[in-house]
Structure formats: structure tokens, C-alpha cells
Amino acid sequence: MNLFERYLSLWVALCIAAGVALGHLLPGAFATIASAEVARVNLPVAGLVWLMIIPMLLKIDFGALGEVREHWRGVGVTLFINWAVKPFSMALLGSLFIGHLFAPLLPPAQISSYIAGLILLAAAPCTAMVFVWSSLCEGEPHYTLSQVALNDVIMVFAFAPLVGLLLGVASIAVPWATLLISVVLYIVVPVIVAQLWRRALLASGPAALQKTQHLLQPVSLVALLTTLVLLFGFQGEQIIAQPLVIVLLAVPILIQVYLNAGLAYWLSRRFGVAWCVAAPAALIGASNFFELAVAAAISLFGLNSGAALATVVGVLVEVPVMLSVVYLVKASRGWYEAGAGAAAAVSKEART
């Protein structure tokens, strides 16, 4: 990693502080930016999301899905966590903490919107930042690539129905047209653009693709940091006025991240998955595609909604929490490999 990526958490913290300060000092400027929208989709945020995720999607070779068979146990664990555990556990945690335990401390009119934002945050597994987390924990690159590609394919078809189901269960009206527009804008279009661009570059040789990826590498991070400034600028007044709300919203997010990372890591060990696959499996299982969550929350509920604020809180905790998960999986490697080796031996003996 370069110096910029190594101190990413510092830059994130500075951009968050800058966004909150600018939003408080220049509310008119941020209101003007917030008003630049079509069909409730904020155009500056949409452009930044594309700049964030298209360079990352450019790395994905959907032909890598064929390599899933080599890491089928790790893939199975992550798919189970991403699609069968995480969205439903967040809906449960959101209802428990925000809808009941913390309800007397929160604005009653915003409670359902907060829960909706938490659900949006958990319903999309991370794609862009996973490459950074996997690199930090020395994860198996082919597994990470194939898992992200598989999640992207599933997300194109599953995100809208899953969110609609969970929001419906939470008794929140689902504006299906806006939700589907968000899926098209933030998943389908970027995937198509990235894959067409990738093919065009590969037609000129692998070196052309590598050069372009190298040039675009800082673009995603700069777009991420600029997005943070905007999002926290939009929410600056609310954050300053409601610091307790930020803390309360962070509680179910933190529990969910550690719960799902721990479960993915334990299941991987139980099934004898190699540590170099289990480490990124835990990170992929726990992290969220917060770019999509924020964009969808803004499109569905508006820039100043409780849902948008909840997803922004997800951004606030994402980087430091995921860095702590990286530290935990690396520190526990010896413990993991002792148990995973024994599990693999038992499995082999059972097959023979």
C-alpha cells in the first residue's frame, strides 16, 4: 500500500470533520448541491459513487467465477453470511435497539426511517473496499476476486427484492420505482460500463488494463473522501444537533459487524477453510457496500432523512471497525490454523 492508503482512516476522519464543519458553516452551499437531483437521485453523489466503484469494478473479471470451485467452502460461508444472516440480523438488531430499547431517546417520527437505513446498509455486501481489506490481511486474491464477482451478480437480482421484503416486514412503505432505479444506477450501469471498458482495454493488451488501473487507483479513494465531505456536510447540522442519535445508531452497526465477522471466521475454521481464505471471508461477510446504501437511502427517503443519516453513520464506523477486524484475524492466525487443520483432517478421514 502507498502512504495514502496506509493512513486511510486518518484521511476519513479528517474528511468527516471537514464535512461536518463545512455543513455547519456553509449550509446554503450544501443545500444547493443537495437540490441537484433527478427523480430523487442526487446527481453529484451519483457521479462520485460511479467514480468510486467503476475503477474497482474494472478489476473484476467475471471469468473468475470459474475459480469459485477451488474455494467452495469459503464461498459458501460468505454467501451464507451475506445473504442469509446479515440483512436479517440487522433488521432484528435495528428493530430491537432503535425500535424498542433506544426508542424513548430518539425522535419518534424518524425511528422507522433509521431502521430502513440500517437495513439498506446491511442488504448489500461490500465490493469496492473489500480489495483493500483483503490486501491488508494478506488474503487469497483469487478467492476475493471470485467472491466479489459472485456477490455483484447476485446483488443485481437480489438487492431490490431483499430490501423490499425487509422494509415491508418493518412496515415501511417501499417506493419500488425509486429502489429499482437505484439498483440500475449504482449496480447495473457501473458493472456494464466497467466490463465494456475492461474488454476494450484488454483488446489492446493486458498492459493497457494494468496502466489504466494504476492511473485510476487514487480516483476511487479521492471520490470516497469527497463523498464523505458531501454526505457529512449534508448531515452536518443533524450530527451537531443530535450527537446522541449518532452514538445510538452506531450500536447495532457495531454489533452486526463483529457478529457476522466472528460467525464467518468461526464457520470457516469449523469447515477447515485455509486462513488466507477465511480472513477475507470474515471481512467480506461483515463489511457493507455503503456507497450503494447511502445512494439508495438518499434516493428513497431524501438527503435529510433518518435513513440517510443511518447509512452515513455506517460510513463513519466502517473504516475503523474493519481495520480492527483485520487486526483481529491476523492476530488469531495461529489459533485459527490449529483448529482448521484438525477440522480438515477429520473431514478427509470421514471421506475415506
The average pLDDT is 83
Broad structural category: mainly alpha
Helix % is over 70%
**Which stretches are poorly predicted, pLDDT < 50 over at least 5 residues?**
none
Find the count of extended strands (DSSP E, 2+ residues).
2
Distance between the termini: 44 Å
Explain what this protein looks like in three dimensions.
A two-stranded antiparallel sheet has the order 1-2. It has helices spanning 3-6, 8-25, 27-34, 43-57, 72-101, 111-123, 130-136, 141-169, 176-202, 206-234, 236-241, 243-270, 275-286, 290-301, 306-331, 333-351; strands at residues 37-38, 41-42. The N and C termini lie far apart (44 Å). Strand 1 (37-38) and strand 2 form a beta hairpin. The chain has 16 helices and two strands. 80% of the residues lie in helices and 1% in strands. The mean pLDDT is 83. It is globular and about 55 Å long. With 352 residues, the protein is mostly helical.
Please supply descriptive tags for the structure shown above.
352 residues, two-stranded antiparallel sheet, mainly alpha
Task: Spell out the blueprint of helices and strands.
Elements: H1 3-6, H2 8-25, H3 27-34, E1 37-38, E2 41-42, H4 43-57, H5 72-101, H6 111-123, H7 130-136, H8 141-169, H9 176-202, H10 206-234, H11 236-241, H12 243-270, H13 275-286, H14 290-301, H15 306-331, H16 333-351
